[in-house]
Amino acid sequence: MKKTGVFPVYENQFKIGASEGAMNTIADMESFSVTFDNGVEEWSPMDHEGWKRRLMTAKAISISVSGKRNVGDAGNDYVAGLAFKNGRDAEADFEWAFPDGTKVTFKGAVINVGQIGAGDSTAVGPLEFEVLSNGKPTITEPAGE
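^ that's the sequence the OP posted. Answer follows.
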């Protein structure tokens, strides 16, 4: 059944892996933020008397995720394992499942690991990373009721 109404943020779920069929959830993630980078072309035609015209011509998505490093969790270990990778080796498939059932799947997203295990001696080691879209994602709408 499709969910409606307000929801707690934790109902968003993420998976990551080397391929769409080999993805795992990522344990102990605490927060995330999403940024849409939109390319908008502008022009000022004379027949519009100084009013600008616009057309969105490009899109990119960045998802910043932060939480705790959990050694032994398949998804958490996979992200941490990308920290020292470069080039195409730093790419992974990533899925964002919304509370309403919508799924956004990024093939070959660039995974930019920013923090891994550092901090105060009494703190729990962090794991922070960004998922940078690398081409158009696949958006799957939830099944009807």
